[in-house]
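FAQ
Q: What does a multi-component entry look like?
A: The components come first, one per line:
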Amino acid sequence: VIVALAGGTGAAKLLRGLARVTEPARLFIVGNTGDDLHWWGLHVSPDLDSVTYALAGLLDEKRGWGVRDDTFHCLEAMRRVGRETWFRLGDRDLATHLHRTLLLRAGGSLTEATGAIAQALGVRARLVPMSDDPVRTELRTTGGWLSLEEFFVRERCAPDVLEVVYRGAEAARPAPGVVDAIRTAEAVVVCCSNPVTSIGPILAVPGILEALARTPAPAVAVSPIVGGQAVSGPAGKLLAARGLDVSPLGVARAYRPWLDTLVMDGLDAAQAAALERDGVRSVVADALMPDGAAEARLARVVLEAAGATA
Amino acid sequence: VIVALAGGTGAAKLLRGLARVTEPARLFIVGNTGDDLHWWGLHVSPDLDSVTYALAGLLDEKRGWGVRDDTFHCLEAMRRVGRETWFRLGDRDLATHLHRTLLLRAGGSLTEATGAIAQALGVRARLVPMSDDPVRTELRTTGGWLSLEEFFVRERCAPDVLEVVYRGAEAARPAPGVVDAIRTAEAVVVCCSNPVTSIGPILAVPGILEALARTPAPAVAVSPIVGGQAVSGPAGKLLAARGLDVSPLGVARAYRPWLDTLVMDGLDAAQAAALERDGVRSVVADALMPDGAAEARLARVVLEAAGATA
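Then the predicted structure of the entire assembly, as tokens:
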């Protein structure tokens, strides 16, 4: 199998490309749950859902989250009765959270719920959460402690980030199958997600980093930073908060020492030498994915960089 | 105050008429919760909601339940992931159930949740559930034991009803204020709801029947049976199952001995003498309410029959 570590929006496009250029059943995707939240009494897993929707062909491309052409009638009615609505759940999206919450309440694990949802929506790749135990990314900011969604959605990334913690990570166990999949993987792909808040929580689950350090599989990451800026989201601000350079070099250092290869955009080709000094091989490719063809192209580059056949 | 005992669809129209011809704040509505159900993990109160939506001007007139012009996108998505969808919750309607469930989970009572929802939607009449304790109407049928909604919605009233029980009623207490409101009421109105499954559960809550028997307020019911048939729903089948005549006389007997006056349709005028022998005065009026004017007209008849000024 090819193990992919994935956040949400950024990862979704690359994973969709991978599922197009290789057999989807070969993909074992470990998704971030550090953004998970309880909203309206429901268990919402934003990153798992973005990946699921992308692979199911349901992702809203314009927003980068939620279900395409979704409506927000329930949300409008929630506003009317006085509920908070800054976290926007669409009507079709809501079914996923209701279903997940019911599965969890019936005693299922998040791994089981995630698999059931993906399967029901026709996803053939295997998607698992990093852990069945709760891990919550919290940011100490100039506006106080914020959950990732509060920072990202409600505060629109405005406050400065002073500290990032993965609450609960020390006590969390990797989801069933994750460590084994890494250990026996053909390749490990780190998607072009935010290294601090999308991949960081995954690496914070005890056992996962160790497995990555030990696996003989080559590890290839795709830089979410292009030309000194995050392709989407607050990755720049968060790399900086962690004392990492907002560049492919900074990304590679977040994955030290187990990263073998970094795929980065041509705009950043000048960083190749610095990466090499850090022991990371670089591959230059078009890292933006405006359409399905670009997703497939980048996916092929990644597989090739990992020495894996398509 | 005018106390009204109410089911759902049937009651909603008369209550809307009453709220139009008199000061809504004068109305103290005791709603049936025998149909309440947990659906998708949410607490749904079909009858309370029909009344709330009607009084808020939101009721879907064609269906007689739910929110006007609602969509069913969440429901379609729930079907897609394999959930049961025979009980149809619209997207806007869903917000009511989410909100109620959250209020209850936060420790609020159903009385508080019902009041909060009604107030948020601009309802000025006071609406309370018959009880904060769970009472569930269950039907023993030729198709086994069914909840009211299973019988009515899922089975479309097809099985024969052999027995009706109000599970939990013996241990239920009337909601706060109900007994006092009946004791000090100017008039008691029994809406044109199903006597067995809409009003029956209310009367089964210990203390309510006693208060009705003792209050000096005149009690006026509106017959939901017109010309030997229920205006809507399975009232006919259920009256028969209870050994009651499917007629205004059967309705009046369900409210013996505390009912003073029955408002019935002109089609049933011949029953006046039989009702009088039963000690129930009858008033003949147009009992169908095809529009708002008819609702207001019937509401005026009811107030007059109760000796209450509009």
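Q: Is there any commentary attached?
A: Sometimes. For this entry: The first strand of chain B starts at residue 2 and ends at 6.
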